[in-house]
Amino acid sequence: MPLVSSTPLLQAARAGGYCVGAFNVHTLEMLQAVVEAADELRAPLIIQSTVGTVKHLGADYIAAAATVAANRSSVPIALHLDHCSDFDLIVKCIRAGYTSVMIDASHSPFDENVARTKQVVEVAKAAGVNTEAELGKVGGVEDDIVVEDQDAMLADPEECAKFVELTGVDTLAPAIGTAHGIYKGEPNIDFARIEKIASLVTLPLVLHGGSGIPDEQVKRCVSLGMAKMNVATELRIAFSDAIKNVFKANPDENDPRKYMVPAKKALFEMAAEKIRLIGAAGKAGDLK
Ligand code: 13P
């Protein structure tokens, strides 16, 4: 089926008490691996690319590859632009075929975040594209966005409700204590805050920093209303480690297929594990 907006996928997930995996990919093989995992488990899927990957590969190449993957698949798949603060790039990605975008103006003051999000919502809604926005500041490293621990800031529940009302945004990523990248210790997730936000905001909520959260804590986040979980670092590690292992065993290997096949398999398995963990397996039919 063609690429779909992530809005209905995420609304069904919030209503059904499960979560859709949103997986960051950087190569064609990574994109194929996550789609194959979703297909095998009959799960809805969001393929994501960061701004860095859009600059590296081109929005048109990524959208074309995602379109082919979606057309070959029978599960609903959306293509999402992760953490973008550049309005023109968001428009470019929508034109290229992205069906979901994130405007990240979380580093701006509240009123400016509202204004910049509203501007994207207007354009995206007209194109039938989902808009995600962030409130508070998620710590850690994502692409070239670095938020030091002391600068990370949790989202205020009342502000979340006000933000949603003022912007008309489709999905909200409130900072609740997770971070991008691998945690030094255990994440310090504020579950009471998620609960409060979910009681005030009926939209699907987005859990950033999905790598390295203990399984029980992920499940708790999902049960509280998180309907989209972003995973990047753990997928990259699984993919890269498999390539490193090939070169450890055979440093002279020079056929890309010889290291891409095991890398794809490792990523497939990691994506499948995450899909099962968040309860998305078997949920593809919710959208038909
Ligand atoms: P991780 O790299 O921690 O999985 O975070 C991914 C993410 O939230 C992308 O927006």
| Order of the strands making up the biggest sheet | 8-5-4-3-2-1-11-10
Rg result: 18 Å
Strand content: 15-25%
Biggest sheet character: 8 strands, parallel
Q: Level of helix content?
A: 40-55%
Q: Hetero groups bound?
A: 1,3-dihydroxyacetonephosphate
> What distance separates the N and C termini?
11 Å
Large-scale geometry: globular
Instruction: Enumerate the spans where pLDDT stays under 50 for 5 or more consecutive residues.
Output: none
Task: Compute the average pLDDT.
Answer: 95
Q: What is the chain-wise order of helices and strands?
A: HEHEHHEHEHEEEHEEHEHEHH
The total beta strand count reads 11
Q: How would you classify the helix and strand content by structural class?
A: alpha/beta
The helix count comes to: 11
Question: What key attributes describe this structure?
Answer:
single chain, 288 residues, alpha/beta, eight-stranded parallel sheet, three-stranded mixed sheet, 11 helices, binds 1,3-dihydroxyacetonephosphate
Commentary on this structure:
This protein is an alpha/beta fold. The protein has eleven helices and eleven strands. 49% of the residues lie in helices and 17% in strands. The strands form two sheets. The protein has an eight-stranded parallel sheet with strand order 8-5-4-3-2-1-11-10, with helices on both faces. Strands 7-6-9 form a three-stranded mixed sheet, with no helix packed on it. The N and C termini lie close together (11 Å). The structure holds 1,3-dihydroxyacetonephosphate (13P). 1,3-dihydroxyacetonephosphate (13P) binds at residues 24, 82-83, 142, 180-181, 208-211, 230-234. 1,3-dihydroxyacetonephosphate binds at residues 24, 82-83, 142, 180-181, 208-211, 230-234.
